[in-house]
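Sequence design from tokenized structure. All designs in this work follow the same two-part layout: the structure record, then the generated sequence. An example of the structure record is given first.
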């Protein structure tokens, strides 16, 4: 039978051959890099080859310059400008949301004010008799009469404004109470209607006819 293991002389020869191949490959790579990056490569890039026409060579150089300009990194100024634009855009968005929220608040205030205005002077017909009767004057009204007698009209204007503000405050308070009372009544009516028995879709026709004849 043949031996599967090679003799030692052949193994050493194989190792030597492999090492020689690796050294030769490394040397070839180093020489190639020197040729590509060395002065000869620069000269070959700048000089026109003999088999290429001048027009094609000029076009090639122009395309090469364009490619180099396109591949250049952007300067820092453009990045700063973009950052400023983003900041300005964020500020504009926040101001727009604030304006929108203010507009919604104004709409809600207008709706509530309309509801109050509809309820102001709702009970005037109940207070007409009490208004017709003479009431004792308040302190502000007495001060107003005294200022008019003295001729101090600036003070009288201030007092009249205070009296009108008080009357308006009382009217608004009454309107709020009226609005809450109406809401409570609506809730109670809805609850009562939900408790009522619903009429069935089907029924006894003869009984309904008899009831209609009896009502006639």
């Amino acid at each position: 039978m043949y031996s599967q293991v090679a003799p030692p002389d052949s193994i050493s020869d194989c190792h030597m051959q492999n090492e020689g191949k690796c050294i030769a490959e490394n040397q070839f790579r180093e020489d190639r890099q020197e040729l590509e990056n060395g002065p000869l490569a620069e000269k070959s890039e700048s000089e026109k080859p003999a088999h290429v026409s001048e027009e094609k060579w000029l076009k090639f150089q122009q395309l090469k310059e364009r490619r180099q300009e396109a591949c250049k990194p952007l300067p820092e100024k453009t990045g700063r400008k973009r950052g400023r634009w983003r900041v300005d855009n964020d500020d504009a968005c926040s101001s727009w949301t604030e304006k929108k929220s203010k507009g919604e608040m104004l709409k809600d205030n207008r709706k509530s004010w309309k509801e109050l205005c509809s309820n102001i002077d709702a009970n005037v017909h109940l207070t007409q008799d009490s208004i017709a009767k003479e009431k004792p004057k308040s302190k502000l009204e007495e001060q107003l009469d005294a200022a008019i007698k003295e001729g101090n009209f600036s003070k009288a204007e201030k007092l009249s404004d205070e009296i009108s503000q008080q009357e308006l405050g009382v009217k608004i308070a009454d309107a709020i109470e009226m609005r809450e009372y109406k809401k409570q009544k609506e809730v109670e009516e809805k609850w009562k209607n939900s408790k009522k028995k619903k009429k069935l879709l089907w029924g006894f026709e003869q009984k309904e006819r008899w009831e209609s004849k009896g009502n006639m």
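DSSP finds eight helices and no strands in the chain. We note this feature because it recurs in several other targets discussed in the main text.
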